[in-house]
Write a structure and sequence with these properties.
Blueprint: E1 3-7, H1 11-27, E2 36-40, E3 43-47, H2 59-76, E4 87-89, E5 92-94, H3 101-111, H4 121-131, E6 136-139, E7 147-150, E8 153-156, E9 163-166, H5 169-182, H6 187-203, H7 211-225, H8 238-241, H9 244-251
Antiparallel strand pairs: 1-3, 2-3, 4-5, 6-9, 7-8
């Protein structure tokens, strides 16, 4: 079998990725992920999967997959989780949504290096407080490079990051990171992606992600991903690619309609 070897900086990082892989496999059993072939102290041999990374034309399909993943994980396990508290199940502990994020958001916003943020430290704190009582999903860094697409088959790869997150947070990462990679996205594609994502939680009676929440999570990712601009394929800043309605919807609290 052809394999792909991922090397980690430490045995702890390797064990964390291994635990994340096992958790995803358990909570999303019908989502394709590479099998683990062999484990060494700081390396994992994964099954090699063919395919290309995601792009703008895949946005709706990937959003649909994310909505399914998050709803499945919530239904199977995360309905018992609180976003402001680490979630422990068997041998894995998944960190809470605010853990580490609040400090990074405040530090980056105070640094003056984030161009035209539509988020203040106070607003970030308010959103983290609101998120604490939202239904729990997860964040796995859904940038377009963490998917492999072959015809109609989509595989999810890279298991380094995993935290609790509200519904829509990882969808916002997909949208922001795709725009930062390829440039401005058609607003209709973003609308259809959010609709495709929300179809899954709303089928289960869950609220999904509102337009205002989606706009806020996009701003979280603008702040947190700006340090990587110029690396990892990120060529465009979100402040030059964001649709104007995302900042409008954050300014006017009663605006919840689709753009």
């Amino acid at each position: 079998m052809k394999t792909f070897t991922k090397t980690y900086l430490s045995a702890q990082a390797q064990q964390q990725s291994l635990a994340h892989h096992r958790w995803i496999a358990r909570t999303n059993p019908d989502v394709r992920i590479p099998r683990i072939v062999q484990v060494r102290p700081t390396e994992i041999d994964f099954e090699h999967l063919e395919g290309r990374h995601g792009g703008p034309d895949d946005l709706v399909a990937l959003a649909n997959l994310l909505g399914h993943q998050h709803t499945s994980a919530h239904t199977r396990e995360l309905h018992a989780a609180r976003l402001d508290t680490p979630h422990t199940h068997d041998t894995i502990t998944i960190t809470g949504f605010a853990d580490g994020r609040r400090e990074r958001l405040h530090r980056l916003l105070a640094s003056g290096t984030v161009p035209e943020p539509a988020l203040t430290p106070e607003a970030a704190d308010d959103w983290l407080k609101q998120a604490a009582i939202m239904p729990a999903a997860f964040y796995k860094d859904s940038n377009p490079r963490n998917f492999l697409i072959a015809d109609a088959d989509v595989a999810v790869i890279d298991f380094d990051s995993l935290t609790l997150a509200p519904f829509g947070y990882d969808l916002a990462k997909l949208v922001v990171s795709t725009a930062m990679t390829t440039g401005p996205l058609p607003e209709d594609a973003i609308r259809r992606a959010v609709d495709a994502y929300n179809h899954h939680p709303r089928q289960r009676g869950l609220p999904g992600c509102s337009w205002r929440e989606f706009a806020a999570w996009c701003e979280f990712h603008h702040v947190l991903t700006t340090p990587y601009l110029g690396t990892n394929g990120y060529r465009f800043s979100w402040h030059t690619t964001r649709p104007s309605w995302t900042t409008d919807v954050l300014r006017y609290l009663d605006k919840e309609s689709a753009p």
